[in-house]
UniProtKB/TrEMBL annotation:
This is Beta-glucosidase. It comes from the Bacteria. Pfam families: Glyco_hydro_1 (PF00232). GO terms for biological process: carbohydrate catabolic process. Its EC number is 3.2.1.21. The keyword Hydrolase applies. Belongs to the glycosyl hydrolase 1 family. Keywords: Glycosidase, Hydrolase. GO terms for cellular component: cytosol. The keyword Manganese does not apply. GO terms for molecular function: beta-glucosidase activity. Gene3D superfamilies: Glycosidases (3.20.20.80).
Amino acid sequence: MAGDDFLLPEGFLVGAATSAHQTEGGNLASDWWAFEQREGAPVAEPSGDAVDSYHRWPQDMDLLRDLGLNAYRFGIEWARVEPVRGRVSRAALDHYARMIDGALERGLEPVVTLHHFTSPAWFTEAGGWTAPGAAEAFADHVRTVAPLLADRVRYACTINEPNMLAVMHTLLDRGLDAAPAHGHIEPDERVAAGLTAAHRAAREALRAELPGLRTGWTVANQAYQALPGAEQTAAAYARPREDAFLEAAAGDDWIGVQAYTRTRIGPDGPLPVPEGAETTLTGWEYHPRALGEAIRHTAEATGGGVPILVTENGIATGDDGRRAAYIREALHSMAEAMRDGIDVRGYLHWSALDNYEWGSYRPTFGLIAVDRATFTRTPRPSARLLGEIARTRRIPAAGSEEPAPTP
């Protein structure tokens, strides 16, 4: 973004995101917990206690409030609420009700996710998203938690990254060894259809119970970039892996953009990270402007009529200076899209805390560092940078190179 600073609209959400399984710890009734414990599971380490946010959420929210952020995306874990089919845990419902109240008391807008990759073990053992009655089972869960959201939550996400969930099923069916080197796997069609049906059933259940609630889902955006002559190849890759899920958001109240890096496409398909390019701890190319590209593509794919929330955007790095630089440039690209008339309502950084990244604690995405031995939380300078943007609603112009606030 060149020129003047960009002033975010009044009421714009600037915050951070987490998921239940990745932060809470001890999610014993979930399918992912069972997967992690399985002999030979392809995980470097199980989630275990995660970062103990199930007990330390008040401290986490205090830190976000004190940093100046105004929103927090977190999840309600289905496996805790309904650990056995048809048996609801009142203690779990009370826990999540207190979390929602706690966010509001601290001036944090609660953006609540109802499914973030993990399901109850009983649901998966019964066939998961392709089983008869799967959509209704999820809608029943949504109806169970709806009273927690009433008159307190404005934004609810039904399902996080359904395209990645469907990809995971393809991987599990074919085996990890069958994955292509570029990693861009086609989603399982039956699982994708089941997730879409579940999303729509949940959306209608929430609208019936809570007419004022804004519902949507989030999509993992790849920011496909076609090299000259590869436009049709790029479209063929984007269609099943991203666009079908974006188009399914037609009629939703919002759509979540989740972007981290770009994917270059040549005539024969995805290309490796350019030689010499900076990469992150996940091996992804450092490319913060992927956010603006993903926002523009999402607006185009949804016809421009669905408001956008950036529900995830961030970088796994041990160098917080690079995280701060990434945040600045990503927000510049978001501001450019907003200046061009795209309706973006919020930016939620991934992640609030260092957490369990689906097999390992090594990739550190957090605005707040977490000591794994003591659970001590330490805000990084990048967190103070984002907090300053939240307080002032001002995205400094590109090239201003303002340093991140010191600890």
